[in-house]
Amino acid sequence: GREWHLVSRPQGWPVPGDFALREAAVTAPGEGEILVRNLHLSVDPYMRGRMNDVKSYVPPFQLDEPMTGGAVGIVVASQAEGFAPGDHVLHDLGWREYATLRAKHATKVSGELAPLTAYLGVLGMPGLTAYSGLLEVASMKEGDAVFVSGAAGAVGSEVGQIARLKGASRVIGSAGSDEKVRLLTEEYGFDAAFNYKSGDVTDQLKAAAPSGIDVYFDNVGGDHLEAAINVLNVHGRVTICGLIAQYNDTEPPAAPRNLAMVIGKRLRLQGMLVLDHQDLMPKFFEEVSGWIRSGELKYRETVVEGIENAADAFLGLLKGENTGKMIVSLAD
Ligand code: NDP
Question: What are the Enoyl reductase (ER) domain coordinates in residue numbering (predicted)?
Fold first, then answer.
């Protein structure tokens, strides 16, 4: 099978030459292990951080080793009780065609309950991030006006719709193209949306939120965070989920420049890691899958075909080529 290695650490924006697709031996499963043929791979923004050689909440990728990441696959051989060939599993050995792993590190998933790709997106890690980040971290309550950046992405599109379904007074989103902005208001039920590339973010947010905002779900950082601090109402709450605008920066960010407002407005800014919210998984899964079944929550995926295109899919994600979750599907 083939697998993707990181071969050099990107300085600034990653380039295709930082990655190499290499042939690797397929290992038969030992006691307690399963052999999985991957069907769908996840590429995620956090992987950019793992390409730097810095200590973080997840260790860096090692050079000339296979990268890891979320994947859904089919068991082809098993030496583990409870797992049989044909079972579908979610696990963390993505970026490769075949994975041999301890069965206790795999979660069985059902293609009948949901499409298999949903376990990497709307019903998986990004979905739980949206749900816990909005409801637990930002303590969103009925009547709040909610602003989310990166709103046409996997996490952001779910944040906005959950806010609507939980009784937000107004839901506002920002995204990087007019087409994405239309999707937010016409399909996802946002009250207002704007393209952050077509004007000043504070000006556009003020126009979209005449009565201010009570919650900001930050996927972007920089000028978006500055704009939100400008427009937040007293006692507003901010979930710092991601800062994608600066993941490829080689200099510290220029914004936000208005942190002093946090004092007068008594704002709460809180960082989050989805890992801390696994206990919410069953409740999240039940509630969100119900909304998907009833048609109240919609989602898109951008599917790139072929393991050979996985690095390009990751690079495309950083540039906004995806709408909803970016997935790499392998030939079945
Ligand atoms: P997305 O599906 O949102 O894809 C990334 C999107 O970021 C792109 O589509 C692009 O959309 C947008 N983007 C890229 N560069 C910029 C920029 N300079 N300014 C504004 N937007 C930009 O990814 P996810 O939903 O998987 O992740 C969203 C955020 O959540 C990321 O910051 C990620 O790191 C974070 N995250 C954090 C977790 C946690 O536990 N803290 C867990 C999971 C995700 P556009 O066309 O609109 O620019």
Answer: 17-328
The pLDDT, as a whole number, for residue 331 is 80
Tokens coding 248: 């490829």
Alpha carbon distance, N-terminus to C-terminus of the chain: 14
Q: Report CA(55)–ligand 1 centroid distance (Å).
A: 21
Do residues 241 and 274 touch, judged by C-beta distance below 8 A? no
* Per-residue burial over 175-196, b = 16 or more CB atoms within 10 Å of its CB, e = otherwise: bbeeebbebbbeebbbbbbbbb
177 lines ligand 1 (CB under 6 A): yes
Neighbours of 30 (CB within 10 A): 10
- Its CATH class, for the domain covering 2-121+300-329, is alpha beta
Residue 191 has pLDDT above 90, yes or no: yes
> What is the domain partition of the chain in residue ranges?
2-121+300-329, 125-275
What is the pLDDT, as a whole number, of residue 68? 98
- Ligand 1 atom closest to 45 (CA): 34
User: Kindly report the CA angle at 273 between 267 and 275, in degrees rounded to 5?
Assistant: 145
How confident is the model at residue 332, as a pLDDT? Answer: 72
From residue 142, give the alpha-carbon distance in Å to each of 44, 156, 157, 169, 236: 31, 19, 19, 7, 14
- The answer to whether 256 and 220 are in contact (CB under 8 A) is no
Q: pTM of the prediction?
A: 0.98
Reference 239, options 204, 209, 210, 274; nearest CA is 274
Q: What's the CATH code, domain 125-275?
A: 3.40.50.720
Nearest ligand 1 atom to the CA of 274 is: 40
